Amino acid sequence: MKTGTSLAALLCVLGATEAFLGRVSFLPGIRNLPTDTPVARKHGPGIFMSTLKSPVPDTAQTQHAQAPTSLHVRDSKRVYLFNEGRKEDKALLGGKGANLAEMSNIGLPVPPGFIISTATCLQYFDSEPNLPSGLVEEYMTAIKIIEAQTGKEFGNPENPLLFSVRSGAAISMPGMLDTVLSLGMNDEVAAALARKSGNPRWVYDTYRRFLQMFSNVVLGMKMEVFDDLLVAYKASKEYRSDTDMQATDWEEMVRRYKEVTTVPADPHEQLQLAIRAVFSSWMTPRAIKYRQYNDIPETLGTGVTVQSMVFGNMGEDSGTGVAFTRNPSTGENVHFGEYLQNACGEDVVAGIRTPEDLTGLKAQNPQLYEELLRVFDLLEKHYRDMQDIEFTVEKGKLYVLQCRSGKRTAKAAVTMAVEMVEEGLISKEEALLRIDAKQMDFFLHPTIDPSAAKTVVAKGLPASPGVGTGVLCFTSDEAEVLAKEGQDVLLVRKETTAEDVHGMKSAKGVLTQHGGMTSHAAVVARGMGAPCVSGCHEIEVDNAKETLTLLRSGRVLHKGDTLTIDGSTGEVMEGKVALIRSTSDADFQKVLDWADELRRLRVKANADTPDDARKARELGAEGIGLSRTEHMFFGPARIDVVREMILANDKAERLKSLEKLFVFQKEDMREIFSVMSGFPVTFRLLDPPLHEFLPSEPKDIAALAGRIGKDATLVANKIKALEEVNPMLGLRGCRLGLAFPEISEMQVRAVIHAALEAKAQGYDPRPEIMIPLVSVAKELEVASALVHATAGQVLEEKKAVLEYKVGTMLELPRACLNARSLAPMMEFASFGTNDLTQSTFGFSRDDIGGFLPRYLEEKILEKDPFATIDVEGVGQLMRVAVEGVRGAEGGDDKALGVCGEQGGDPKSVQFCEELGLNSVSCSPFRVPIARLAAAQAAILHKKAHK
Amino acid sequence: MKTGTSLAALLCVLGATEAFLGRVSFLPGIRNLPTDTPVARKHGPGIFMSTLKSPVPDTAQTQHAQAPTSLHVRDSKRVYLFNEGRKEDKALLGGKGANLAEMSNIGLPVPPGFIISTATCLQYFDSEPNLPSGLVEEYMTAIKIIEAQTGKEFGNPENPLLFSVRSGAAISMPGMLDTVLSLGMNDEVAAALARKSGNPRWVYDTYRRFLQMFSNVVLGMKMEVFDDLLVAYKASKEYRSDTDMQATDWEEMVRRYKEVTTVPADPHEQLQLAIRAVFSSWMTPRAIKYRQYNDIPETLGTGVTVQSMVFGNMGEDSGTGVAFTRNPSTGENVHFGEYLQNACGEDVVAGIRTPEDLTGLKAQNPQLYEELLRVFDLLEKHYRDMQDIEFTVEKGKLYVLQCRSGKRTAKAAVTMAVEMVEEGLISKEEALLRIDAKQMDFFLHPTIDPSAAKTVVAKGLPASPGVGTGVLCFTSDEAEVLAKEGQDVLLVRKETTAEDVHGMKSAKGVLTQHGGMTSHAAVVARGMGAPCVSGCHEIEVDNAKETLTLLRSGRVLHKGDTLTIDGSTGEVMEGKVALIRSTSDADFQKVLDWADELRRLRVKANADTPDDARKARELGAEGIGLSRTEHMFFGPARIDVVREMILANDKAERLKSLEKLFVFQKEDMREIFSVMSGFPVTFRLLDPPLHEFLPSEPKDIAALAGRIGKDATLVANKIKALEEVNPMLGLRGCRLGLAFPEISEMQVRAVIHAALEAKAQGYDPRPEIMIPLVSVAKELEVASALVHATAGQVLEEKKAVLEYKVGTMLELPRACLNARSLAPMMEFASFGTNDLTQSTFGFSRDDIGGFLPRYLEEKILEKDPFATIDVEGVGQLMRVAVEGVRGAEGGDDKALGVCGEQGGDPKSVQFCEELGLNSVSCSPFRVPIARLAAAQAAILHKKAHK
User: Can you tell me which residues bind Mg(2+) (chains A, B) (predicted)?
Assistant: First the structure.
């Protein structure tokens, strides 16, 4: 990244802005300090590394050295200085405390502080409302040490030491007290600070914030009480924003705040109250409920972290900055940062002044710059990853306030991972674990240029990744026509059906008002690799008028207007948005090669056509885990034959149509076998209800009747008769094959003939035939017998030998529960996690638009179970099924896989690894992600079982 | 039963005809014999009782006495005479053999025979194709004894002994060799028999049947080969039926049969081949598959039963008869039988001659009649139940060929059970177990008079028991009008919807073309106790033309034609059929009182209205397990308010409509509480998708829009928007309550207000509020919090105290799997086995008409899972859920029940008992059945765990 790009923009790209803003806006200009202390002055800024290696009296250091792993010997000790802990001490010190301790110990200049242990929290509930006896004395000893280190004094207005107080359990837990900043503040302290800093405005702003925060989190008052006072004051002054407020205004606010609250002036009393509030927050109803819900033991307790603060705006030799140890955008091994002299975080965020890159700092203070570089190096070596660092310089002395593994773009993640392996910093396994598999969409689809301007006008579900721009078009026929004329088209529908497939193929993207992540539109689009945003309830589509209303603004768009959709985020944007594309990135290929070395799970693709199959091979699929034979039924030349077959008056008529379909189907299959030579190809027998293939509009029905030479009324009646109340639970899957065995026979004949022809052409076909929607063992018995009989007959006719396998889908709870009884009739099985999720939850994927968004928003569900396997419910059934199959005779030889949409979801892939499945199968464009996720899962599994 | 009723008609009523015909038509005139033997002659017919008490040499008798229970000491023994076994020896002798042995041993005159043990079968597979060494010698010894007993000789044409040979494993198993009759037949034997009997016609008929049967089951030839020969012969002779065939014709057939088969003439060779065939039949693919499917161990093996035969048409002192020890129709303790002199079974069945009742036999042969009475007495005392006996008299000597517990009508079953308890013959427990709970419909609904003529014109699903006759009517509005005019109406619909409820109420019965056992029509009809036949695919309903086409005949019926439906059998009959009714039968009441004493499960009713509730109390329900609050929404005064509420533009408008509904709902609830005072009443919050309440026809929509003062197009659009692809899996149940909390709030307020009012009136209301369709713990958390908050608010307002419970439905796989996490938020739970069956199988109850009938017919499913709980699938989930709830804190105090339709099904009730549930709930008219079934389940459970 070149200097032209601002840090704020970069943070924005990385999604970090909110956290940054959230934190610093509460603490403008103040950073945990020591300032001008005798110790600091004695050693000078240049030697802080050695200083900080042993900044506390030997006693504490020795104690830690003596008992580095055993916490028991420290049981009677309740207060820990930072350098008395390590990051492994989370149970004792809480997550926050342990991390601060770690930073201190590896030599980072962290403002000193102490932690009251989590065990003390439990003691508190015996002594409540008093603190456990002796605790105050104990932490006062720690405060004395910190006073000595900082040269300041807690409660002394002439040289005040201010603290932040935070809760922190071993497991991060919302619902507990978070933070009180600037504790130790009172009128005298504020006056002295205002004098010393020469910046009374932020002192009083900080003071009033302290009062509000303390009143809220410690005293339980509402934030609104204070907000209302401020609003009223600004109104009276006709101020438009906080920036209009001057030092005297904030001082006045402090006065007004103090009228409504009872924050004690005594810093010691403040501290005691804050510590008690942190402990008490462990037992609020919200925290208790959260623990119950997440199975967190009550006996963990919370720790209390008390840390001194630093100031970044103490003059020209002070400042504040943010840096990344490598470029988080490109991954280049070049540090990247920004610095603002005599400033605090608020100034950076508010954009009032523009920060410079670190060359400015280098020029001003080369020694400090060198120190910073040493910090970068130290941090990368210690954490073995690129770090995101916040630092403050106070009167020439550097303080690190936070360091964490830095967020990065997909490109940077991959480049860094590859380079760090090549530098010998990390292993391949670690490198792979560092990469967020979900981000890898970046390498597979053009993405929005992060620096481009965009206006989001609506948001729907991120149904199929990729970005698509085009003119709005409301029918599939027209989409096809316009596309042929060379236009970029965006197909907009209430929802799509089988009749829209040609339109979807022609369009640059698909936008639907209804339907979830696994609606027809979503599934078909993912299969095609076409961008799709589905379930976009912020638009209203009127098919008749060919308009799209943006509900946020009420604006009505018409045919021919241009929109852009991002299928990775669900965003709908105005006009055309600039894109970037990263194809065949060498680092990415390297990562995938490593993934292939390290994974155990076989990765296949869901592919229905020869084109899909080719794409799947290119992207590394090792076979086809699901080929939906019915998808070969679409296309203008075929669909009418399918309809003729469905509407046949009797079996003889149906057989005639099936014979025509046989030719199409066999040819597609032969080509798929040739593309997938040497790899297994699983054809699933016809699954959807027949009604799905038929038109519904009277004029379409009449036209169809004309084409196939039947009476329109009879055809309409027959279509009506095939209607079902809940087609998802009706005559489909193997039920269809049992009702019309001739359809299954045709499909099996096509598979076997196709394989024999491919073989004759020198390919190595590996056919597998899969029977869908089995719930009862007898269904599989009858259906598999039909497959074997038909295949056997073809092979006998042709006097040929061919290996083929017969298996089933595990996609209904009953099948999973009784997998053991299905096992004898199957050579393989595939979890259809879409259908299994539907039936386990009782959620129709076509109708979840009505409640799923609310469920996710209100956290009734943590995740969309159609995107990520629901381990607690669906996962239990899968586990029972795996045990059932593996426990049956020869069960270990029966390949088990997943072919629902979740097969390309990293979390789900990890669960498949845990279950010991043999493969996952997903849409072709997700294959690279699944390959990476499979490797990550294998590495994690190995780690966990070492 | 009086003498006027024929035995054939009676058997027909009892469903026994088919078995009877099936057996005797294969063996016309021949019954296992001895005939004119020295032994028989010496003792004479009068003394057979003592003779048969010790009919075999002492050695065998002694051996049995020495080792009555241990089979090990008999391991080396392979051939058992009948009196060497007992009915407990099924594992050793097979079921058939053991029963024949039992009959011999209790002193019944059974034609002698022997059994080759099941263990020998396994030896055979080592010696195959030869019989195990020494076996022939061993069974020849047994044959010698039988020859001595019968005075006949196997293979001797002058005095031939004929055998039947049957397979028989410990568990009855289709797919194995069944029976070869008249083995020992050949040309010489036939000639001698023809001479001796003076009836060459049946001798040669028997001979040709033997040839055909032997060729088929032993030699593996097709039956058709022989049938074709017979057809061709009859055609050449211009015979119309077998009765035209004379002795010489059958002799000719024997000649022709022998030309195509290779049945050996040597009886000993015949026997060896037949025994080998029985053993081999154990290992046919069909038998192996059956065993795998039913978990029957292969090591059981099959036994071979070889029995001598008797003849009923040896002259005037011979004959054949059937008798019941009590009247199987009324239950009266008076024997009932029929006898035909000098005849065989075929004559009885063919109806050529009319059998007389036993007074004829009494007159002809008083001594033999007395013997028969002693047999009746002996059998009843031994089996402690009414027996159905087949007997043959050969030359004055009585032989019992079969005895079994007799089939009986519902009335007879109850009367016999009560009388036998009062006679001291059986205990109350045994009495209850004897009664088929399903048959008890007889006491609750008028039933078809068994003696009435009826013409069945179509058959559908037996959706709601009872018989209804009426004129066909195709709309609910017209049904209501005609009913008010005093006509009996039969409502005929393609399927019913919420809009048909008033028509269903007015009709004497409901007949639908579509829909399963749990379709709207079925569920609502059962709730009303109205007869219903649903899913009748043998009719085609045309609503527009108001016609019903009988597809069997193609006949078209019109409005006003009369049909009768039987909702217990699914039969649709022409015109009006005569009915009988058994109300408040004293014996039945006694049985129910005993059941109440002995059952553990509480029996509640599913009741939605005060009328339902009253009916439920009358029939003994101890509370309401499911009150579907939405059913209170129907009715002309209410449905429009409901629609207004659904179509409201905003929450304010919706609240206004809800306020009106509150009044209706509260009043219904108050009345239900008063009827059910002292018993728990469970109200389920609104469950169905809102779309179900709305009209679908444009003219109805327009009318509605007018009534509620809204724009018709807007209303139509809103209705369209509420449409779902799979409403069963859509926005319903708790999802609805979470989307529109104000609806749940209104319902909860209504429950609490109603309970308080009922309490003020002196009743004892016990409200329970149930949250439907939960799949995720958080749903229940939010929904139950809303119930508690609303209830608490009402109680606070009213300053009242009221106990109420909150619970949930367990009706989705995910809820069952995670019941433990739901437990903290529920005080009770009810399995909704309808929905649970739907989701576990992936079967929509609305659409199963398309495949369930075929599934049941082809035995893909053994039972309709919507009628009887599927223990292997749904039952597993229920078990997991019970364990989950019971394992949670306080889990034992949380009442668990079933409220799906299966709650009234005896087998399902038994499963509920096994699971340790607290209650079952079913439609009011099934309550007595459930009470009886619950008692039976408790008795069986006690027995099994003793």
Answer: 811, 835
